Predict the 3D structure of the following.
Amino acid sequence: MRLVLAVALVAVAPGWAIVRHLPLDDPLARVVLSVTVGVAVATGVAGFLMYAGWWSPGRAATVLVLVTLGAATAKGHGLRW
């Protein structure tokens, strides 16, 4: 059960923190983009840490938390095209 919750948190939290700044009206699009962006951010963090030779699960979790907190606390003015 903990594994399922951890994977869900890693897949959704960073993406939700980033996608909430986008001007989307469709809730389904917001959820799908949140998961997609969350997985992409987690993969990018893991890839960077592996490439740099700094990989450890604790370090990866720390970077993901910092990215999520940074995106969640950013002052989003919304992106208008």
User: Anything to note?
Assistant: Residues 2-13+25-72 form one domain. The chain has three helices and no strands.
